[in-house]
Every structure is written in C-alpha cells, then in structure tokens.
Specification:
The structure holds 2 protein chains of 2 kinds. Chain A is mostly beta strands. Chain A contains no helices and 11 strands. Chain B is mainly β. Chain B is 0% helix and 55% strand. Chain B contains no helices and 11 strands. In chain B, strands 2, 4, 5, 6, 9, 10 and 11 form a 7-stranded mixed sheet that branches. The chains are: A mainly beta, B mainly beta. The interface between A and B is medium-sized, with 21 and 22 residues.
Amino acid sequence: KNEVEQSPQNLTAQEGEFITINCSYSVGISALHWLQQHPGGGIVSLFMLSSGKKKHGRLIATINIQEKHSSLHITASHPRDSAVYICAAEDDKIIFGKGTRLHILP
Amino acid sequence: DVKVTQSSRYLVKRTGEKVFLECVQDMDHENMFWYRQDPGLGLRLIYFSYDVKMKEKGDIPEGYSVSREKKERFSLILESASTNQTSMYLCASSLGGGGFVLSSPLHFGNGTRLTVT
C-alpha cells in the first residue's frame, strides 16, 4: 500500500521568501498531483506530473522517480499563497498526503 | 473552465435522517468522486464512478451509497446519518481513464460541511 508523507506539516514564512514543500511516497506511481486548498475548502489542481519538472507562474513542481520524492516550490511568496498544499500519489488509486499548511506573513 | 458544483455549502442534519449531497459537473467528465476530509486524516475516498450507473467503493464506503443516473450528476446518500459522519464532503471529477487511474487532473467542488447532531 502506498503511503504519502508531506513535510513540513506547517510552515510560516515572510513575504518574498522561497518556499519548498516536500512529498515522499513509498511505491512506484504513474503520476503525482499537487493541489491547493484555500480557507473555505475549495481545492484547485496545481500540477500533475510523472517525470521532471513543471512550472506555472511562480510555482514549480519537480519529481524524482528513483528517489520517490516530489517538491513544490514557490518563488517570491505572497500572502495570497497562504493555503494548504496537498500532494497525491497515483498508482492503481490515489493516495493523498495530509497536507502542508503554509502561512505567508506580509 | 471546469465547474463542479455542490448543492450546499453548509448542512445541519439530525441523527437518523437520510441526507442527500448533490454534485454536478459541466465538462462531460466520465469520472466522478466523493471524498470526505477530516482533520489529521486528509482526503479519503468514499465512492467513485467512471460512467453512468457505474460505481466502485472507495476506502470508506460504509454508511454511504451513491447514485449516478446522468453523466453530469453524482449524488452521495447517507442512509441514516450518524454523528461520526460529521465532516467536510468534497466532490471531484476528471476525464476518464478507466478504473481509479486518472488520465487528467482532478477538479473539485467547494465542499459541503455537514454537521450531524
């Protein structure tokens, strides 16, 4: 059974800082998803990747298949980036991590 | 843009009531999912449907049933609500890929926060 671990659980940083959130999984996967959940509950899909790196605006997601590890980076962080970030590993089903709560201070 | 709409944002029901949570998506997606989200536990799959009238149990189906009579609508039913079903319920959809495997990103609704008293 795949297990998905995220770190850190909570992260507080100053506006402008470079942010890294990590995700590790235990078995081989077909894809890794990064999701963002704002206060109030709605979840938005940020990335779906199976190799290498993807970039969208200030967000970058990378994955290392051999090491079973993915990272989500936020450059020039802003208070509106404050949210819970969730990774999910997909093999024959999708297993979600418990999320990283990010708080960016102005 | 894909829109997944859940019928209620907040719902308060009494123990033993039958509860219907409705979800509608507007992008002709084959896959639809119901999750519940609890603090410290993350998202857990209740039921999954990959086509009209097709359903598969997820990790925690006990106490729930689902209905998918039309492609765009996926309903979650709590036959007899209990206090341990107090939770945030999230509906999601995606393009088909067969089974649980996705071929495309998940699109979520805004969630229904259900309280059972």
